[in-house]
Amino acid sequence: MRVVINTCFGGFGISDEAAEWLINERGWTLTYYTPKGNLFNPDADFVVNTEHISMMGLYSLARWRRHENELRCRPDLIDCIKTLGTKVNTRFSELKVVTIPNSIEWQIEEYDGIEHIAEKHRTWE
Questions:
Q1: What are the sequence ranges of the domains in the chain?
Q2: CA angle (61 as vertex; 60, 64 as ends), nearest 5
Q3: Which string of DSSP letters, residue by residue, matches 14-31?
Q4: H or E segment to which residue 61 belongs
Q5: Which residues pair with 106 in a beta bridge?
Q6: With CB atoms 3.0 to 4.6 Å apart as the test, which of 10, 73, 81, 92 could cross-link to 113 if both were Cys?
Q7: 3-state secondary structure of 56
Q8: What is the pLDDT along the chain (125 residues), one digit of tens a residue?
C-alpha cells in the first residue's frame, strides 16, 4: 500500500499547482464559503478562498481532515506527486510516497508537521 506523508517541519499540504492538476486531470471539485461561513458544497474536495489567500495558497482541502487515511492513499494524489514531483510541495510541506505492507493497521503520527507511519497499537493515558 502506498501512503503520502509530509517529511518537513510545517505540515501536510499541497501546492496550488497540485490542486489545479487534481481538478483538471482527475475531476476533483471546488466549493466556496457562504457569507455565514458554511461550505456551499460540503462534499467538494477543495475550498477556494479568493478574499484571503493563505500562506499555503489559494486552495485548501475541504472535506479531508489532515490525517485522514483515505486521502493519503488516494491514487489521484499519488499520481499527482509522481507527475509533478517537487512542484506538489508548499513552502511548508515536502511530500513523499511511502510503501507499507497491506496487512497492517496503520496511522500517521507527526511532530511539528514531520510525519511518519506507525503500526496501530493500544495506548492508555
A1: 2-119
A2: 155
A3: --HHHHHHHHHHH---EE
A4: strand 59-61
A5: 119
A6: 10
A7: coil
A8: 999 999 999 989 899 999 999 999 999 998 888 889 888 888 889 888 766 556 567 888 876 765 588 999 999 999 999 999 999 999 999 999 999 999 999 999 999 999 999 999 877 77
